[in-house]
Amino acid sequence: MGLKGYIHDIVEAVVTTAKxxxxxxxxxxxxxxxxxxxxxxERWEIPQGYRGFLHNDIKACTSxxxxxxxxxxxxxxxxxxxxxxxxxxxxxYDIDIGRCMYCGLCVEVCxxxxxxxxxxxxxxxxxxxxxxxxFVPEDAAEIKARVARQVxxxxxxxxxxxxxxxxxxxxxGSAEPPKPAAGPPEPPPATEKKE
Amino acid sequence: MESLALSLVxxxxxxxxxxxxxxxxxxxxxxxxxxxxxxxxxxxVGSLVLRKVAGDIQARIGPNRVGPNGILQFLADGVKLxxxxxxIPEKADRFLFKLAPYLVFVGxxxxxxxxxxxxxxxxxxxxxxxxxVMAVTSLVVIGVMLAGWAxxxxxxxxxxxxxxxxxxxxxxxVGMALIPAVLVxxxxxxxxxxxxxxxxxxLFGWNLFHNPFTFFSFILYFTAAQAETNQTPFDLPEAESExxxxxxxxxxxxxxxxxxxxEFGDMFIVAALATACFLxxxxxxxxxxxxLPPLWGNLLSLGVFLAKAxxxxxxxxxxxxxxxxxxxxxxxxxxxxxxxxxxxVNLLGVSLxxxxxxxxxxxxxxxxxxx
Amino acid sequence: MTIRPEALPTQExxxxxxxQHPSTHGVLRVILxxxxxxxxxxxxxxxxxxxxxxxxxxxxxxxxFMPFTDRLDYLAAMNCNCAWAWAVEKLAxxxxxxxxxxxRVIVCELNRISSHLxxxxxFTADMGAFTPFLYAIREREKVNDLFExxxxxxxxxxxxxxxxxxxxxxxxxxxxxxxxxxxxxxKLDEYNNLIxxxxxxxxxxxxxxxxxxxxxxxxxLTGPNLRGSGVRFDLRKDEPYSVYPKLDFNVCVxxxxxxxxxxxxxxxxxxxxxxxxxxxxxxxxLEQIPEGPVLAKVPRVFKPPVGEVYFRSECPRGETxxxxxxxxxxxxxxxKIRTGSFVTMNIFEKVTxxxxxxxxxxxxxxxxxxxxxxxx
Lengths: 195, 371, 376
Prior knowledge:
The complex is a heterotrimer. Chain A is an alpha+beta fold. Chain A has a domain at 54-143: Alpha-Beta Plaits. Chain A contains four helices and six strands, in the order αβαββαββαβ. Chain A has a four-stranded antiparallel β-sheet, covered by helices on one side. The radius of gyration of chain A is 34 Å and the shape is rod-shaped. The N and C termini of chain A lie far apart (73 Å). Helices cover 65% and strands 0% of the residues of chain B. Chain C is an alpha+beta fold. In chain C, helix 4 runs antiparallel to helix 11 (264-288), helix 4 (98-126) runs antiparallel to helix 13 and helix 6 packs antiparallel against helix 11 (264-288). Chain C is globular. Chains in contact: A-B, A-C, B-C. The interface between B and C is medium-sized, with 29 and 32 residues.
């Protein structure tokens, strides 16, 4: 390295340092360059379609379990029983948001569009159990019991109605051969449990 | 100190009853306490300013939660440091481990003693002031090495070794770059050096403008001194992205705090020496502070000195947040291949200049042309 | 710079660098044998972040694996999403609507910019300059804002779908993207002035860990690490997929402008220049993007035909190859993912011999490794 290279090195070092320092000085002096968002006080605008916490509108939910099947991390658990009117009744619908990875697959497949992402993203809890969101406010066992009761009542009613009809029929035309007493008993309420 | 004690005894006859040594001792302790309080305050505020400057440069805000606009952040930091658990690694050399932070802090703090804060405001105006600063600041290297060794941690050891090589290497260019100021003033005392820059409106008498060589020696000093005190971009002993935190990696609590304070103390010492030797010290531009009534003159010159020194500190922070870090062999090369030869050439230049022009600087010559 | 260890015989020391070291970009552990500051041997020890992604891929359905590809390389999740989608589409021979392909290219290139920004920022932070890192983060936030707009998340996007993308670009997205490009392009010159050509920075990188082209090929380096060695190989050009053939862009290669060809500085500059090319690609894609649907008709219970497929695409950290064997069921029967970072670790021990400890950090930074890619 000759003297020329030596001096060139020094000059280059000074010039490139000065260039860099000019840029940092501009940022240092210009208050408009601050981009910090003072988070708890200021918030950014959450766009449409933001994938925040999940929310299930249980009135619209048909308990089809599509969301349960599609969830890659199995964070949704759903219990449903078949009600008296043959429709599924939600006994419990829990989402473990500690496990959820907010991929949005469940929202995409939901047929009645009852499961949606909200714009919520803030939550704190001291235990993992608190991270499970319960969407059905009542106790699952209570609902099941109630539905079972309703189903039993409906079955009893149906049976009575059938009996009455039978009796009426029997009274109407005794010539006809008697039918078997009643239909097969109502099947026990179907319980679907998916974890 | 003795003269001050004498004048104090004279002005307050009540003190004459006390023995002379007692008055001197009391004065010394007072001066020490005042300087310590100043140093600690500076170091605290310095850490806050450093973070604020970093925030500004990096397009963010910096600390703004503790107190209005975050100005009490340094108190919160200090309280945190004091309250933290003081951990000593099991296999560390306990005695040396405890000793090291004090050595580092003392080395940095002792240099405050000769800083010429204002007209007649030096804790001690030693006639070997520059030499003294050089001597005590290199004491830091022992502390840093001890810390690195005693921690019984390989990263810390590497940091300590780097620090030893670095500080010793950079002593030479730092000393050589300061000598031009000594030559111009003809004295090693920092007060004398400042006084010698007083003429010509208190601005053009500065050594910075004396001749081209002194200008270069200012730049060389500033560069070398940053390296000697381990400031970024020369912070290899504590390079956090390589050595995690270097020599102080095992320290916590107040012991770490002492390292931290020493770093900012060093920063101020570098700025203060640059101010005193090249930027006219406490000389007020376009005004002679010595003409004011004693107290006001002292205060004004103190303010001017601090303003200049803080400006230099700001420049150091600015450099810190701009440049990347050198590698250890490049650092050595920079010292021995660039700074040392350059400072020697520079010293030669200054000496020849003083010889040829009988100690006159360029502003002086211009002034003499215009009468 | 290389220092001969035999010049100063001293006792060797073994240091553990990582897995909790600030400059190993995650949980990489490097076992250093050093002679003072000189590294005699640096052996990377990988596996601290292994999550068995490939096994998971065999247990979940093809569509369900999409969110897991986000975790393959979290700094370039879009690229991994699209790579998976392209692989499965190649397997099942699905025609993807053209608009979806353009949207994929736009988000992939945007993600390449944001990933290279992190590479640039963390590399400069490793070199001791912290300020460029924050500038890079600031720009990346804007890309994240765009992604949040189009897919709803900021880090794990899960945007691609088998047969298209999850949703069309919302109104204003394309304009905002254009705005971002106009804002971003001048910033690259600013970075170059601020740090790229800074004397200290150049000195730290030039001539460090130079990899000659043939050696890079022999060790299987891909992506910017390969191109840094002067090998002009880019899957987007050489094995074109999606709509890349319709777009005009250059392949950036290292030129050895500040030292030996293939040193850390070349790898660094390739990334900086690639960001500029990505801006060009996105601009063209924004011009050419047609109207139309964004998702092809794919049966809900998706069962690709029996067969196997290997699809590779150019991700920011090199080639991401996906090897799939389908047995005709809803899950793949075998999945293997080849990632750029993992292959790069092979050459690590070789190039770091005789460097200094600070250079190890530079080498890790210049390879731009990311641990989830190494361990999967």
